[in-house]
Here is the input.
Amino acid sequence: MFEKQIKIPDPEEVVAALPMPENLKKIKAERDRLVTDVITGKTTDKLIVIVGPCSAHEQAPVLDYVERLGKLNEKVKDKLVLVPRIYTNKPRTKGVGYKGMFSQPDPNKKEDILKGIYAIRELNIKAIGASGLAAADEMLYPANIHYVEDLLSYIAVGARSSENQLHRLVSSGIDVPVGVKNPTSGSILVLLNSIYAAQSGQVFKLNGWQVKTDGNPLAHAILRGASDGYGNDIPNFHYETVMQVAEGYEKSGLKHPAIIIDANHSNSGKKYKQQIRICEEVMQNRLYDRDFKKIVKGFMIESFIEEGNQSEDIVYGKSITDPCLGWKDTERLLMDIAEKV
Here is the structure.
C-alpha cells in the first residue's frame, strides 16, 4: 500500500521558484566547457578531478569545503579541472538508512523530499557563487534529475544503476558529461553497452511524457572496482584492465573514448588513504604509455574537511557515510597530480 504524503511540484515549477542567477549561469557554462573539452580530447593537457564528500549531508561544511576547493583551483587550474562532489542521493545496499539530502535534508529528522529538493538547489547555487566551480552529483533516481540538472557540470551513474534501462535512456538526453560506472560485477561489456545506449538517440516515457533524445556523445566510463560473489573487492584501476577497456572502446566505435578512475569504493576497498597510492600509480602509468594517458581523463576522489567518517553528525566536516580523505591530504594529492600532468 502507498500512502500519499506530499505532492511534489514538477521540475519546471521548482526551477522557476528558485532559479540560478544569470551571473552564475555564465560561470556554470564555462565550467561545462572545461569538462567537456577534456572528455572530447579537445584539451589534452588537463585532467578532470571530481572531488568531495561521499555525501553532502549539511550545507555549512560543504560550502566551507568548496570554498577551499575554489581557492586551490587558482593554483592548479592550468593542469586540473576541479569539479566538487555535491552528492545529494545516497544509494543503500540494503535499501535502508540515510539516503541523502534529496530525501532527508536534515539527517536527524524524517524524510521531506520537497524540502530536500529546495535545499540542494540552494546548496548548489551557493556553492557556485562561493567557489566559481560547478558540481557533480549522482543520478540515483532518473525521474528526479531535472530538479538539479541545470546546476551541474557532471553527472554520474552508479555501479548499481548502470545496468538499469531508465538510467541509460535518461543519460542520452543530458547535455553535460555523464560518467557511467562499471557494474559491481566488473563486466566491461555491460559498461560499454550502457555507454552505447547513453550515446544513442532514444524515445521513451519520462514523467508522464513520451520524450525523444539525440544521444549524449559525452557519456563515458568510470572504473570503480568490482566485487566477487563473496564480497571481496577486485580493483580495476591497474594498467592491464584500463587497456582492456580501451580495447573495448576501440572495437565498439563509441565516441570520445574516456575513462575516469574512481580511487575509492572497490578500487581502494574503502580504505580511504589508499586513494593517494591509487592516484600515484595511475599517474605513473600515464607517463609509461601514451595510449593509457590518452584515454584516462581524470579521477574521482572522496574527500572532506576531516578524514574518516562518523555514524552521527557530531564532528564538523566529517562524512556520515563512507570514509574520506581529510583536507590536508586532499590538497597535497591534488597539487601532486597537477605537477605530474
In short: The domain at 24-35+46-340 is CATH 3.20.20.70 (TIM Barrel). The chain has a mean pLDDT of 95. Residues 59 and 240 are 40 Å apart (CA to CA).
